[in-house]
Amino acid sequence: MSANVRPDETSPPQPPEAWAPALRLARLATRPLERFLRLEAASGLVLIGAAAVALALANSPWSSSWLRLWQLEIGLGAGPIAFARPLQWWVNDGLMTIFFFMVGMEIRREIAHGELGEWRRAALPAAAALGGMVAPALIFLAASPGGAGRDGWGVPMATDIAFAVGVLTLLGKRVPAALRVLLLALAVIDDLGAILVIAVFYSGGISVAGLAVAAAGVASVLALQRLGVRSWLAYLPPALITWAGTYAAGVHPTVAGVVIGMMTPVRAWLGTSGFVASLREEVGELQRLTAREPADAHRVAQVLQRIRQSRREALSPAENRIEALHPWVAFLIMPVFALANSGVALEGVHLGAEPARVLVGVVLGLVLGKPLGILAACGLVLRAGVARLPAGIGARHLAVLGLVAGIGFTMALFIAQLAYGEEQLLAAAKLGILVASAVAALAGLSLGRSLPAAAAPGAAASADEVECEARA
């Protein structure tokens, strides 16, 4: 039985078709999995497991078969028209579009209702994100000043929010809630910056015809919204048209996911209060229909359909889609991406001059550039009076934030795939990302252990204490 179903006193304890011993066995088997998936750090742990599996297989006797798997051509065709690409391409350009679609919706939601909705609140995470992107890129360019290796300057700019939140979760009460909010806001802006970098610097030559197709898809989405269409299935064809047009235009197709995500409405039609009022009315109708036996099944189905529609409209389309997609993105799409991209055959890595500079640039950019850029940028806006620290947050908290922001796993691997076509440079970048993410996570945990336990919600730090810590 689904955990959301609550039978009343007259209902049987199990579905009519279920066999009791089999149902008990299924509940015993799934209960540990349900507990694990409720952990805040679960998605980060799954990502670590996927990366470890990919790394182990890439350095095992089955490495050649593992690498061939991701180069397997998969495609669609009808008559003379065919479209075939390697399995890794379908993961990076197809599945990851769904990830970027969710990122786009989260950016839109934060701008409308979250920490980015007011400039005073957005100033600190915006400055932190900007500093955390510029400093790593500059450090990378300093370490890799010439040749093809410098094309990966965007690799150390990214933060992996799943890993970063996972590390903060392991620190427990030492991490104030305000620090988690600051990290999430920083990550949203960081993702937006990475998307702009991908669109501008890591896309091919622009095709006007492709852009016209993408624009037609976007126009179709706007038209459906003006017509009041609420079913997400109706938006799937124009979204696919936008994706195809973006790909044909030479822009990375995941940008289409971001565009469609940011177009998704963030205002609910009914809202929770409207849903409650509608539910009362429909429940009254159900009671009248079921007062007579037998009940009219057709009319009961109509009432239940209206209840489903009201339930859907209690939240905005963006919130509904985020809730629906988050488990799939966290526990399927991102781990599959890690499997496809984090396998580095260490035996085949030859660290010549150029690959070595790439590896060092990535490691220094993430491990040093991220915390230095974040701390420097936060210090500037705090001293200028443009922003202020949330209560309970001090210099050491910002240092922990900077360190865990150096975990660049998913987005960094993604940009590395776009930046490097030469196998040795790509392998060096991947190895640098794995090493840097591990070092940043361990450093963040070590420094985080020195933080005092967060004060109770009613015991906010005084303004003088916060200012002293900010100047430390």
Structure description:
The chain has 472 residues and is mainly alpha-helical. Helices cover 69% and strands 3% of the residues. Strands 1-2 form a two-stranded antiparallel ribbon. Helix 2 runs parallel beside helix 13, helix 5 crosses helix 7 (177-201) and helix 14 crosses helix 17 (423-448). It is globular. The N and C termini lie far apart (55 Å). The relative contact order is 0.15. Residues 456-472 have low confidence and may be disordered.
In short:
The chain is an all-alpha fold and 472 residues long. 69% of the residues lie in helices and 3% in strands. Among the domains are: 40-78 and 119-174 and 322-471, Na+/H+ antiporter like fold (Up-down Bundle), CATH 1.20.1530; 272-311.
